[in-house]
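ping. complex inputs:
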Amino acid sequence: MESAINVLVSQFKTYAAKDDSKNTLSKEEFQSLVTSQLPNFVKNYKTNSKWFLIRRGVSADSQNASDPATVDQLMKSLDENNDGELTFLEFWKLIGSVANQHGGFSQ
Amino acid sequence: MESAINVLVSQFKTYAAKDDSKNTLSKEEFQSLVTSQLPNFVKNYKTNSKWFLIRRGVSADSQNASDPATVDQLMKSLDENNDGELTFLEFWKLIGSVANQHGGFSQ
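pong. complex structure:
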């Protein structure tokens, strides 16, 4: 498990480091990460159950990882302190919801 | 990232499946998982910074992954609905704090 956690931490750092704020994801970094690193998981959200995105106000017909509107709304729903950046823990909540739904724990 | 998430989900399921409640971790399953899967990360909590465990009322001198008292207090702090079992999302919070601290995001 530790190596898997290391992968998630290092990937977050890789995408977060693209601009000056090295420890947070801007919207562009977040979109780039979701599109390239979570293509299947976010797509599954689209087909299987939209509970995560709908609960966060993202309309059902626009939930596509590469669709800027989806990323924008998703980012706003995760960006708890509204500073336009995602901290690791804010980002971690998305991964938790993705993993929870992917693991079949939330029917 | 998706494969790393799959590892975390499948490991959770492996440990959770040892008793009848297949989708949650009992205290014994949680201890077994923490001891065997997170030995270094939880140990680092002990030496580097105890903020996570102290914030959850676990005394500084007893934070050892295999120490039942630590696991017991940690479990209580995570078990939000106090049913003696950890759901995936309750467990996910621990992993998030471990990863957050391990990634150096929380100084």
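The interface with chain A takes residues 1-9, 11-13, 23, 33, 37-41, 87-89, 92-93, 95-96, 98-100, 102-103, 105 of chain B (CB under 8 Å).
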